[in-house]
Amino acid sequence: MKSFLHNKIIKTVGKKNFLVNEKDKTPYTSGWRTESGDCEFVVLPNSLLEMWTVLKLCIENDKYILMQAANTSLTGGSTPNGKYNKGLVIISTTKLQTIIPIKNGNQVLAFPGSTLYDLEKKVKPFNRAPHSEIGSSCIGASIVGGVCNNSGGALIKRGPAYTELSLFASVDKNGKLELHNKLGIELGNKPEEILKNLDDRNFNEKHIKNSNFKASSTDYSNIVKDINANSPARYNADKRRLYDASGCAGKLAVFAVRLDTFEKENNERTFYYSTHNPQDLTRLRKKILTEVSELPIYAEYMHSEAYKVSKKYGKDAFYLIYYLGTSTMPFFYKTKSKLENFFKKSNFFSHRTLDLILNAIATILPNQMPKLYNKLNKKYPHHLILKCDQGIYNEVLEISKTIFDKDDINNFVVASSKESKKLTLNRFVFAGASARCANLENGANSELLPLDVALKRNDDYWYKDVADNARDDILKTLTVGHFFCLVFHREYVVKKGKNNTKVKNKLLKWFDQIEAKYPAEHNVGHVYEADDNLRKFYKKLDPSNIFNPGIGKTSKTLVKNKN
Fold first, then answer.
1. Structure pTM?
2. Range of the domain at 186
3. What is the pLDDT of residue 135?
């Protein structure tokens, strides 16, 4: 049976796109921050039609399916985890990277393996921009992955990735595979016809229908402006963002999504705020959200400890992106993963070897951050990068003058475009830098516990970052965040000898007590337990539990075999 299935798939996708030995599978079975699992084989379809054929073959042969795109997941949501009671197959969509601008560039049609970086380039001639830019694109994140995980939201006006217009396959309670065309595009009736027409781009604007269904988070700007609301602006299990492919976390096989693009802001200005008193930033947030005529582009918080970590341990990633662009990052991370696995299996190297080498190379490179901001970072603990359009520059400037005095208490600077680019990059290489910091500075003496949390919009005490009963367990806390929606990424360095799971549970219990939500924008993966909303949503999408079993600590067992 196994050889029959293998031969059928090889005949469909070609031998080089069927990976069965451990070495070849490793880049697809390894998570960035999570333990590796195993799978029976990995398939890389060359077309949407091939992807459909592979899906049918796997389901007919009683396999679990794990759909995977860029595999940049911070929580392991797109990689295997532990053992499964039947064979697990990874279908990687990395060869399916087509992006088709439609409606004069106001929308795009994106295939499952397409990246945010490519989307930026694709819509640039239309003077348009995607829903998410520098954050996710830095690590080569996929468009569909963002939609499936409700990711993004750093760009204040645009909100997290969301659409109600998608093309996807599901498996019903009897094990039957079905294709659902909800793109609002006439492509035919039969699955093979629909997918072939998409593959061949056999459609035009007349086939694309105007739709009342959303292709972005159109209500988000009003949500984030409501500073008195006793609930978060956004989080992974938000019912408002759960719709078919959106928030599905791999419980569907997504073939394409239709998304809005946004008018590109070409006259950007950047403010940099520094303070001893975090309430200065609270006042700034409230005044800008309620008094300024338009919302800023983004507002990124960074504690001084996080700034230093990014500057020291993210230098290689910083230079790669600064000079070569984010297109280099997927190759960088894939290569790094292969080398790390090689070192793990070797008797001559430790798990720290590659990070030591990369950081040693980085130390040779010149200081990447301007002297002024290094000075401000040494002087003040709390920092905010705020980018806005030129149209509201004067409004933001006047508000800033009423709160920040440019003295020993606080300070603000208007950054140049070059400085702005460097500040932004230093913020967004933090995720990788923090992991390396924990590995190199503390090694076996500690463990990194990364959590992302959405606080209530009316929470004025956002700067409290650790529960009182967990304080003695934590060596240090590194905090960054999307400040205007109060979504924070906290990297807790847990002391040696402390149980990581117990510390995490203490922190999550505290988050529950302050009515925060988690995860905020990373998928539940295998780190967080899916709440009731998500569990019900997953069961509705995938009643047989064929797709991504075990996500959000749900069951890995097949619910009902096909008739």
1. 0.92
2. 99-263
3. 57
